[in-house]
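dumping these here so i dont lose them again. two proteins, back to back, each one seq then structure tokens. dont judge the mess
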Amino acid sequence: MKMSRLMNETVREAPSVTEVKGHELLLRAGFVRQVAAGVFSYLHLGQRALQKLEAIMRQEMDALGGQEIKMPLVHPAALWQASGRWYEIDAELGRLVDRNGRSLTLALSHEETLAELARQEIRSYRQLPQLAYHIQTKWRDDPRPRAGLIRSREFTMLDSYSLDADDAGLAAQYQAHYDAYFRIFARCGLPVLAVEADVGMMGGTQADEFMYLTPIGEDTLLLCDGCGYRANRQVATFRKPETGGDTQAMQFVAELVVGEEKLERVVTAVLAHHSQLNETKLVHLLDAQRLRPTADQATDLWLVDDGVTGWSGQVDKVADIAAAQDGDACTSCGQPLRTVRAVEVANIFKLGTRYSRTMGVTFVDAHGVAQPIVMGSYGIGVTRLLACLAEQHHDAAGLVWPVAIAPYQVHLLALRGGLETAVSLYNDLQQAGIDVLFDDREERPGVKFNDADLIGLPLRLTLSQRSLAAGGVEVKIRGDGETAVVPLNDLLNHVTAWLAEQ
């Protein structure tokens, strides 16, 4: 691609709307442009980087035996009503009505749609196991989009879904995805940790999140350096001190759901004086322990943390509702936990029969008996991954892309006296199968060098009267700044060998 033909230009100054460095650089380098709050266009360089990420994901999913499919962005509301999530998810779910008055939703995820496909296509245990995946646009009407692509409202995800006859099959596919995700992130160049997580709106019996550690992250993790315990704060447990004394009572109005009706009840949470309430644990307690009142019950609810001693007041349930904090003792080994900030870039869920039972998704087993299909759900945020890679791989001058996901491998610059030779070299590099961005613009050398550093392609080749006089082409490695002059007749071999080593 010739830069003179690109429809976008680089931006010299940092846009005022940016909150984090990676987003600033993606805007300045011409990878993305904001259309609305949390909604972006991906320009040529950004789209090529996404395609590189998606190619890695497809390779790893195909290696697991996955079948690539494509499910729609728009879903009939009836599917989400059948699963129950139509009533459980509030404003984040994009609801709309078509011209015929039919209720629809924009895809927040695709569990219901995949379950419906399985209901139609799977009949016998002989068809199991199955693994299907797609890369598709999602919509989540987030009230607080921030940090560019890290928390956007429209985004792209890799989703895969496993279908099995039993829990053992699910466990095998879950572990296969767990391992494959680490390979994907290693190939992309992003360091991640896997941590225990809340199943959230997905439901099921188990979840793990893949986290990129960064101060800009909105998730808080609890890590133990003694035994390796890792968990999102939403589900983290800790060893509570055996001390009596003061307590604190937190009282608030909770909106509880009874069938399709929403009721307001006063909930009082009693904790030790030094503790903080974990709202996720509290929500699960209200649901799992069936403490939600019926429509004719007007009594308030009193929930007491299991770390409280000596409480003599009203008690409806004693359970763990306290949030783990920095310095709390690890439940497993007693060592102090530490907190870090992180961005969630992927998650995997053991859905079990959560969707198949509610939506009638069954298969006939070897004994002729209908059984619910056991499901798993696995997802990587593709556009969020691009944002995290920009956070991880940059310096003061701009982006520094790893070869595997760079939009182009080589940035070719033609300066005064080198244009004719650069055009010939551009053609040779393309014929050799090397991705080249050719800066053929009539710009000053300083502008071209600054743009090359800002865009951040792995290799910069500069052809000028000066380089030719010195014996060839100036080759600069973007990552470490190492520079050398390579003879023209050896350049193709040099570039090919360097790229192969990365």
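---- next one ----
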Amino acid sequence: MGLGIWGVLGALVVGLAIGAIITYFITKPRTEQAYEDLQREIEQQRAALEKETENILDTTRAEAQEIRLEAERVAERRFKDIARAEERLDRRGDNLDQQAKRLETREQTLNKRQSRLDRRNNQLTKIEEEQREKLEEVAAMSTDEARKVLLQLVEQEAQQDLARQMREIENRAKETAEIQARKLVALAIQRVASDQVAEMVVSAVPLPSDDMKGRIIGRNGRNIRAFEQAAGVDIIVDDTPEAVTVSSFDPIRREVARRALAKLIADGRIHPARIEKLIKDATKEVNRDVSEAGEQAAYEANVHGLHPEILRMLGRLKYRTSYGQNQLLHAIEASKIAAILAAELGGDIEMAKMGALLHDLGKAMDHDQEGTHAMLGAEYAKRFRVPPLVINAIASHHHEVDQESVEAIIVEAADAISGARPGARRESLENYIKRVRTLEDIAASFDGVESAYALQAGREIRILVKPGKIDDLGAMRLSRDISKTIEESMQYPGQIQVTVIRETRAVGFAK
């Protein structure tokens, strides 16, 4: 059996070998044909590649040839440009050489002229020195002395000419401006003149009888102490019959205390608790009156669109006075004057009215804050979106800032007219005497003044000068100098007229 298996295996191997030989001889022609086809295809691709490569080389050679030709043309143009530039430079070099030669020639000529001029200057200097020495011998004075005399003569002549021109200019200006100014001021004053009040820091409260004084004071003074502490004022109980006095520099507090005290006296129940209640009620009443006064002032001035806080602060001016002039009435009066002036001068009437109405707004708060009333009023108005034109008019009506519009100038003029018109303001005897003496002292301090007298409550000062020292033109200069000194050194409402009088007398005797 083992022999049979090996026989089968041998037959199988022989069959496989024979099949492989037969397969080889059958597939050999096909393989050779495929190999030949592949060789032909490779040859064709090689020929096509060689042809394409040759075309590319031809194209590249042509482009390289064109580039080379173009480069040669550019280089040729560059060479030509360089050659032309060199020619121009050569020509310029020649021109510069020629100019240098001409300059050298000129310099030599100038040097010769300078030498001649120097010699002439030396000669002139010698001649001038000789002439100066001869003049000094003839005039019997030195050069410096002669110069001083000449300068004094020139200065005196110039001052006389200046004074003469100033007088002519003033006369021409007065001919046209004074008539119109007087007309405008008189018109404004006549239309809006208002009553004045006296400036006081005390208020009197009448009593039904003198027995009420003891009740106001209270046991051991408790009632009067409670009242003064709650109201922030001083209560003066003296020998004045049937009256007590409320004293305070704050007019709002004084008015609150006056009303509260009047109600206490009428009610008769006077004790600390009642005092505090009535003072609170009086404070509310005064605040309400302040708001109503501000609204009424805006209505009378015909100014609209103001913030309620602005109106409330404006109403506080009802209880403020300046030189005896009520500040709320002054604001209304100034607003009306500003409207008239703006209408005559072609300004913005609404802005002028508002600026004049609010120009003293800071006086209602300057007891509580630091700063001038003009700047305080401008800062307060700025918080409530008042127009910038009006803010500038408020801040500049005392020249603390520059005036930026004609309306600001109108506000300043309206303020001055309202405060300076006859009877508008009053001042204490001490301030009046001090101002008059100051005016006379300022005038007497100038050289050539013989005497000075203040007239018309200090609104005019008349100055008598020595005629031997001050001539007519000098009198004009003196009046202007004194006016400027007064403006710079004094504060006063309105304006002060300075009159210089020069009088020459000739006295003879008949025998």
